[in-house]
Amino acid sequence: MKAQELYEKQYKEKKLINKKLTFSFLRKSFKNLDFSREDIALKLLQLDFQEKIENILDLGCGEGNFLFKVGDKFNKLYGIDISPTRIKKAQQFAKKDKSNKFIFAVGDLNEKVNFPDNMFNIVVCLAVLEHLFDPFFVLKEIHRVLKPGGILILEVPNIAYFKYRLQLLFGKLPVTSSPYNWEEIGWDGGHLHYFVKSNLSKAIENCGFKIIKVSGSGFLANLRNWYPSLLTGDLIFKAEKS
Fold it and tell me: Does the first or last residue of the chain, that is N or C, have fewer Cβ atoms within 10 Å of its Cβ?
């Protein structure tokens, strides 16, 4: 099965069935304390200025949710995803915006992205790197298309999360994706790699970036982020192209 076929099965055939969130009652009661990866990405980007930034690229953009959230901060917004079904939905949403500044395209991030060197001010890559064959290749491509001083926001599951450590201790493989119907949509939702803070930090730096901050999302993320490598289920990096 090709990668595109796998993710079309998940989204076009609607096979992606998620587990219920843990502590769902608390999460509903204290929504202002529950931060999604997109919330943390926005916080790390600090998009609270008056002048618009030239452009942004979202790798693995899905239906464009993140780009639509930040649409008023940029002159041009680009999104790539491997699923034609999701890109079609993103393009339909973009038609409602009369500015024509949203550009979505189907693309396989296992291959070279079709953009020139030093093009983007910001690249966002949320919940994508763990699905790709060669993380080093992807990080180098991101480095290539970013302008000098450009910012990368990268998010991956954290296999060193204390909950996952306990599961491994007792011989159980952690589920780092949401779905549980693995037979239909791929092993652990199609995750190919597992990361911890130290090894991914080294990979990011070796690919030409300077790490500015490492954070995580989830319930009570502000408290747990004093030690994200142990206390958060994901890792969110803010890095600058050196």
Answer: N
Q: β-strand 74-81 against 146-157: which pairing, if any? A: unpaired
Alpha helices (H) in 146-188, listed in sequence order: 162-169, 182-185
How far is Cα 1 from Cα 101, in angstroms, rounded to an integer?
34
Q: pTM above the 0.85 mark? A: yes
Distance CA 33, CA 108 (A): 35
> Based on C-alpha coordinates, what's the Rg of the chain?
18
Q: From CA 216, how far away is CA 237, in angstroms rounded?
A: 8
Residues 178, 85: Cα–Cα separation, whole Å: 20
Write down the residue that tokens 């993380």 correspond to: 135
By the 8 A CB rule, do 33 and 219 touch?
A: yes
Can you tell me whether residue 239 is helix, strand or coil?
A: strand
Q: Pick the range with the lowest mean pLDDT from 72-86, 172-186, 199-213.
A: 172-186
